[in-house]
């Protein structure tokens, strides 16, 4: 609306229309700024998640429950979201963890979940023993001491009788009181 008579003051409708136009431009600018801020937050969250799940090149997750697993790796799986293993081959599984309590014993356990069913994977027939103290490396040994960092490595035989499918494996180390000292999860495909 253009005001043609300079001696007359603009009508109330003129000022209402002008305020609406300014408010609309202001709200569009605010909306755009909010969207940009939200996109930055989403990007930061995605980058944080990617750095959390890809530690040392192997995609894994710590188990719920407060264990202090610092690193979890399966030989030959660096940079892979889905680690493919062949039946009959042996892979090295490594964990680095900070002990949450003192203990003179450490026991290994592996669980596999596939198609909604979870079950312990047999360790007795495997190429290692469940006494995890015998597989501490780099000068580490039992007893373990709270807040000390330990390295664990063991050979893991992929048994011939494992059905070829995709599994979520959970590998844990428990102390003498059945408290979890270290635990990691990753997805593997047995072929």
From TrEMBL:
SMART domains xrefs: ML
Principal subcellular localization: secreted
Top-rank taxon, per record: Eukaryota
Statement: the UniProt record of this protein carries the keyword rRNA-binding: no
Gene3D superfamilies membership: 2.60.40.770
Keywords from the UniProt entry: Secreted
Any one GO CC term of the record: extracellular region
Keyword Magnesium attributed: no
Location in or out of the cell: Secreted
One Pfam entry name: E1_DerP2_DerF2
Record-stated family: Belongs to the NPC2 family.
The protein, known as: ML domain-containing protein
């Amino acid at each position: 609306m253009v005001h043609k008579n300079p001696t007359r003051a603009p009508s109330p409708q003129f000022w209402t229309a002008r305020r609406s136009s300014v408010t609309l431009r202001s709200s569009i600018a605010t909306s755009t700024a909010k969207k940009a801020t939200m996109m930055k937050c989403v990007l930061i969250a995605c980058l944080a998640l990617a750095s959390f799940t890809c530690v040392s090149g192997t995609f894994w997750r710590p188990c719920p429950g407060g264990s202090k697993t610092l690193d979890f790796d399966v030989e030959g799986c660096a940079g892979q979201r889905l680690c493919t293993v062949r039946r009959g081959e042996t892979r090295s599984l490594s964990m680095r963890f900070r002990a949450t309590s003192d203990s003179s014993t450490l026991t290994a356990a592996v669980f596999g979940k596939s198609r909604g069913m979870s079950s312990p994977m047999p360790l007795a027939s495997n190429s290692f023993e469940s006494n995890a103290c015998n597989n501490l490396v780099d000068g580490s040994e039992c007893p373990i001491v709270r807040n000390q960092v330990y390295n664990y490595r063991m050979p893991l035989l992929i048994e011939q009788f494992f059905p070829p499918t995709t599994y979520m494996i959970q590998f844990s180390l428990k102390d003498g009181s059945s408290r979890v000292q270290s635990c990691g999860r990753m997805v593997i495909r047995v072929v």
